[in-house]
Automatic annotation (TrEMBL):
Natural source organism: Haloferula luteola
Name this polypeptide is given: Sulfotransferase family protein
SUPFAM superfamilies for this protein: P-loop containing nucleoside triphosphate hydrolases (SSF52540)
GO cellular component: membrane
Top-rank taxon, per record: Bacteria
InterPro entries with a match to the protein in the record: P-loop_NTPase, Sulfotransferase
MF terms (GO), sorted A to Z: sulfotransferase activity
Length: 215
């Protein structure tokens, strides 16, 4: 979600509280919220449209850079959201749009394998980085090197308040949107699944200091 007037760019990472944030930011953005009609599910399912840019609700930072001129892109305050990956993956698994009510370990493994990491959403690799990456060489750079702020899902109201202060818009209590119905995330994991999530989302876990916690 983008606002040229208020000079912000919000990267909506799925299942990290982004619907609640976009529900507030829509009043300050040039984007349009489009309810998904027959595909509606959960509390609120919507798409984001902008007449000037071909972007989607979950557009990545790199995709925004492709459609914005450099000067505009550079001056925007860029932020995204982060969530404990073990919790996020269970929330994703039971997300209303998947229409899944029963736990299936193999289905979870398939979902885990295709779920992008946070770096996919918030990193803008330079030309040299892309080339080195294809060759399997070079450092990737820090996880947050291309954005200004990460909101933690676990402290979303406090962190979003800081964003509001930065953007000089009123602080509000975020509404709850698209919460999945499930038990505590830890009840779905065995030791192998804990390790597989830890391996896939190692950067997020290290950056956020996350741990797998039993209920």
């Amino acid at each position: 979600m983008i606002s040229l007037k208020h000079q912000f760019l919000f990267i909506h990472v799925p299942k990290t509280g982004g619907n609640s944030i976009q529900n507030i930011l829509k009043d300050y953005s040039e984007d349009d919220i489009v309810i998904m009609g027959e595909h509606q599910d959960g509390v609120e399912r919507f798409e984001v449209r902008n007449a000037n840019y071909q972007i989607t609700k979950h557009a990545t930072l790199a995709e925004y850079r492709e459609v914005l001129d450099r000067a505009t892109f550079e001056k925007l305050f860029k932020f995204a959201t982060l969530r404990n990956p073990w919790d996020m993956m269970i929330s994703f698994y039971f997300s209303p749009h998947r229409k899944v009510s029963a736990w299936d370990r193999d289905d979870f493994l398939s979902l885990l394998a295709e779920t992008p990491t946070l770096r996919h959403y918030v990193h803008c690799p330079k030309v040299g980085e892309k080339l080195l990456g294809k060759m399997g060489l070079g450092a990737k750079g820090s996880l947050t090197q291309d954005i200004d702020f990460l909101i933690r899902f676990e402290s979303i109201d406090e962190d979003f308040g800081k964003v509001c202060d930065r953007l000089e818009i009123p602080r509000v209590v975020l509404p709850k949107r698209n919460a999945s119905s499930r038990a505590h995330y830890s009840s779905y994991y065995d030791e192998e699944l804990v390790a597989k999530v830890a391996d896939r989302f190692a950067e997020e876990i290290e950056w956020g200091g996350y741990q797998f916690e039993r209920a």
